[in-house]
Amino acid sequence: MEYNSDNVFAKILRGEIPTNKIYEDEYALAFYDIAPKAKIHALVISKAMAVDFEDFVEHSTASEIEGYMRAIVRTAEKLGVIKEGYRLVFNSGKNSGQEVPHLHAHILGGEPLPTNHM
Ligand code: AMP
């Protein structure tokens, strides 16, 4: 799928839609999900214009991939979920139910999470 910069996360990156920011660096921006599915539910979006996980990995440099992965860890630290544990989810494509076609990781935690599908 071709990247389309009309999506809501591209608008957030351009500052056109406000968010509740948790963390930001040159690779990523993290904020709280607007419709939380766990006590703590954050999103870490890449600053690269990638549709999904595969698009990002195939078209990014090693340092961009590393920077994005480290930004996820920095966000988990800021959320305070490392000690008790958390779940990382990358929805990719139709069968996953991916709604927003811009790479993002969900960080879920703050309570014991349901184990179905995982
Ligand atoms: P996905 O289904 O993996 O594409 O997840 C997209 C997520 O983005 C959903 O959990 C939505 O609740 C969340 N979302 C959509 N719009 C916003 C927004 N403006 N601010 C924060 N989260 C959003």
Under CATH, the topology can be stated as: HIT family, subunit A
Biggest sheet: strands, sense, closure?
Answer: 5 strands, antiparallel
Specify the overall morphology.
Answer: globular
The structural class is alpha+beta
**Number of helices, where a helix is a run of at least 4 consecutive DSSP H or I residues:** 3
Number of domains: 1
Query: Percent helix among the residues?
Result: 25-40%
Order of helices and strands: HEEEHHEE
Query: Biggest sheet: strands side by side, in what order?
Result: 1-2-3-5-4
Mean pLDDT: 97
- For the termini, the CA-CA separation is 26 Å
- Ligand kinds: adenosine monophosphate
In the CATH classification, which architecture applies? 2-Layer Sandwich
Query: What's the CATH class, please?
Result: Alpha Beta
Q: From the alpha-carbon coordinates, what is the Rg to the nearest angstrom? A: 14 Å
Tally of DSSP β-strands: 5
Can you tell me the CATH superfamily? Answer: HIT-like
Q: Poorly predicted ranges (pLDDT <50, ≥5 residues)? A: none
Strand content: 15-25%
Defining traits:
single chain; 118 residues; alpha+beta; HIT family, subunit A; five-stranded antiparallel β-sheet; 5 strands; globular; binds adenosine monophosphate
Write the SSE topology.
Layout: H1 8-13, E1 21-24, E2 28-32, E3 40-46, H2 53-59, H3 62-79, E4 86-89, E5 104-109
Antiparallel strand pairs: 1-2, 2-3, 3-5, 4-5
